[in-house]
């Protein structure tokens, strides 16, 4: 039976339209989901929207609408964007779903049954933008006596009756978890940050609110709604049918990886495992915090007028170009800065001029000059074997090894080097010259190249699925032979049928798009 793999993104606040950070995280998760499917695993991939909390309530009030209407409208934009970006999610969850309320209330009851909840009064700082409580010592002074959170957001002094979770009792268990599972928090820089935070001591956490009612009701105390992060984190269980612990819960929990941005590491690696331990559930295997994307070095914001619609970027440059760029350009886990020129340069140099050109010149040559059919009679020579071995090693070993570690840029760098090697081989072997002098040798060269293009396309198909499907269609590769397991078959020995390909990666111009 296939080995199950459960991957989630953070669920996004639908208090506005999706931005490039949302697209980045969801594309990366999609690449990983597709990659593991092609490796033969049974994948469950979940994304969605986080619809409760003060931030949603306040935004709705500002817009003179209801939080429900705001959530309905904005959640639709997220879903539409993810469909446009070819995100292959299995479940798009919305936290306003009745099932999710049931799951969150069950989590609450379990934590209460363990004796970890008590009623008290919260007096302290809260950031609505981060939906986070902060200790005084974490804040910095700002103009006019105001204070700012470590994320640079405003905080307000909050006093209200609240249920508390005994987080302080979990310090040792959390430190043991981090020590026993060094891969639980990645990358290393985030792990160190969290270790320092937890070693410094934990205070009990306020987990309910009484000053507004847009949230999941606290079971048995209807005047409280849950703190939004209690319900938000529970989404990862709701999607598997929790509280039913048979079926998908049994198959997919604990999650293999929660993919999140670096700003929400504390919620996922401190609060979430503590809630799970309290509720008697297993903790996720890994939380991976990626970096932040900046627009020409600056954070996108309405006041700077530099907010980019990721859907517009995809329409302008192509979905696969955007997907490739985002994973290739930045080291996953670190921050990155993007610009139109960077997207265009990367797409032209690597997709259009290298991989696209390789596929185009080889396949159209066969379609035009060999009637779309080649059968290599001559035995492979050293150069043919060396190229095939190299491309096979990159596609079957190096790229997968890097992707397993979420080192996408390094995996794609190895892949690109293999593409360059193929282009160098075309130039050296010059099949167009062999056509007159040695047709048998020409057939061997072309068959080797078709086999290499097949491997390169399969290996990178999690990143650029539509483009690879076109190339594999042109090579007449059946759907069932488009997996990593199929890389071990050498297709250069049989008859290869080739359809005339349509150009897959148009050259992009600065100031314009491509003509797909
Ligand atoms: O934090 N670059 O939602 P969110 C890269 N609802 N990633 C970015 C980014 C940027 N510029 N800006 C945000 C929330 N992100 C909560 C999560 S999970 C149980 C609840 C990432 O809409 C951010 O780090 O503010 C997070 O992982 C995701 O986008 C959603 O952010």
From TrEMBL:
Protein location: Cytoplasm
Alphabetized UniProt keyword annotations: Aminoacyl-tRNA synthetase, ATP-binding, Cytoplasm, Ligase, Nucleotide-binding, Protein biosynthesis
One of the GO BP terms on file: methionyl-tRNA aminoacylation
GO cellular component: cytoplasm
Enzyme superclass (EC): ligase
Organism domain of life: Bacteria
Keyword Transport among UniProt keywords: no
Record's catalysed reaction(s): tRNA(Met) + L-methionine + ATP = L-methionyl-tRNA(Met) + AMP + diphosphate
Gene Ontology MF term list: ATP binding; methionine-tRNA ligase activity
PROSITE patterns linked to this entry: AA_TRNA_LIGASE_I
InterPro entries, sorted: aa-tRNA-synth_I_CS (IPR001412), Anticodon_Met (IPR041872), Met-tRNA_synth (IPR014758), Met-tRNA_synth_2 (IPR023457), Methionyl/Leucyl_tRNA_Synth (IPR015413), MetRS_core (IPR033911), Rossmann-like_a/b/a_fold (IPR014729), tRNAsynth_Ia_anticodon-bd (IPR009080)
Protein family (similarity comment): Belongs to the class-I aminoacyl-tRNA synthetase family. MetG type 2B subfamily.
Free-text function comment from the UniProt entry: Is required not only for elongation of protein synthesis but also for the initiation of all mRNA translation through initiator tRNA(fMet) aminoacylation.
Subunit record text: Monomer.
Protein's name in the database: Methionine--tRNA ligase
Species in which this protein is naturally found: Aurantiacibacter spongiae
Gene assigned in the entry: metG
């Amino acid at each position: 039976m296939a080995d199950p793999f459960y991957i989630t993104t953070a669920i996004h606040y639908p208090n506005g339209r999706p931005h490039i950070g949302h697209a980045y995280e969801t594309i990366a998760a999609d690449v990983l989901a597709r990659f593991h499917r092609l490796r033969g695993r049974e994948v469950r991939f979940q994304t969605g929207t986080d619809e409760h909390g003060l931030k949603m309530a306040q935004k709705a009030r500002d817009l003179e609408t209801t939080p429900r209407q705001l959530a309905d409208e904005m959640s639709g934009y997220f879903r539409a964007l993810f469909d446009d970006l070819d995100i292959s999610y299995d479940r798009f969850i919305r936290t306003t779903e009745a099932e999710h309320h049931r799951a969150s209330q069950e989590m609450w009851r379990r934590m209460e049954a363990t004796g970890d909840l008590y009623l008290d009064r919260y007096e302290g700082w809260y950031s609505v933008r981060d939906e986070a409580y902060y200790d005084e010592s974490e804040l910095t002074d700002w103009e006019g006596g105001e204070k700012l959170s470590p994320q640079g957001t405003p905080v307000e002094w909050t006093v209200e009756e609240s249920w508390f979770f005994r987080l302080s009792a979990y310090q040792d268990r959390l430190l043991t978890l981090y020590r026993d599972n060094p891969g639980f928090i990645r990358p290393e820089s985030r792990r160190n940050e969290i270790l320092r935070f937890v070693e410094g001591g934990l205070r009990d956490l306020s987990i309910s609110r009484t000053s507004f009612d847009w949230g999941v009701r606290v079971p048995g105390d209807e005047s409280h709604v849950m703190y939004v992060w209690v319900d938000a984190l529970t989404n990862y269980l709701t999607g598997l049918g929790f509280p039913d612990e048979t079926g998908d819960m049994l198959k997919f929990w604990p999650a293999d990886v929660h993919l999140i941005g670096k700003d929400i590491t504390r919620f996922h690696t401190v609060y979430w495992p503590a809630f799970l331990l309290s509720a008697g559930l297993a903790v996720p295997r890994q939380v991976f915090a990626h970096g932040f994307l900046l627009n020409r070095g600056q954070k996108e914001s309405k006041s700077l007028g530099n907010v980019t619609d990721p859907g517009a970027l995809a329409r302008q440059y192509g979905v696969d170009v955007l997907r490739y760029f985002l994973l290739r350009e930045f080291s996953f886990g670190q921050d990155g800065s993007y610009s139109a020129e960077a997207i265009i340069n990367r797409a032209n140099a690597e997709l259009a001029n290298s991989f696209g050109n390789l596929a185009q010149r080889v396949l159209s040559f066969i379609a035009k000059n060999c009637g779309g059919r080649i059968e290599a009679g001559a035995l492979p020579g050293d150069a043919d074997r060396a190229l095939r071995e190299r491309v096979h090693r990159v596609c079957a070993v190096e790229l997968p090894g890097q992707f397993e570690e979420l080192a996408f840029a390094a995996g794609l760098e190895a892949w690109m080097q293999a593409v360059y090697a193929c282009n160098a081989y075309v130039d050296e072997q010059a099949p167009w010259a062999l056509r007159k002098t040695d047709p048998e040798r020409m057939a061997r060269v072309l068959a080797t190249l078709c086999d290499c293009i097949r491997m390169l396309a399969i290996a990178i198909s999690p990143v650029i699925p539509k483009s690879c499907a076109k190339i594999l269609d042109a090579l007449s590769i059946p759907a069932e032979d488009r997996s990593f397991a199929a890389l071990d078959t050498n297709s250069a020995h049989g008859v290869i049928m080739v359809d005339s390909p349509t150009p897959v990666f148009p050259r992009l111009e600065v100031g314009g798009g491509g003509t797909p």
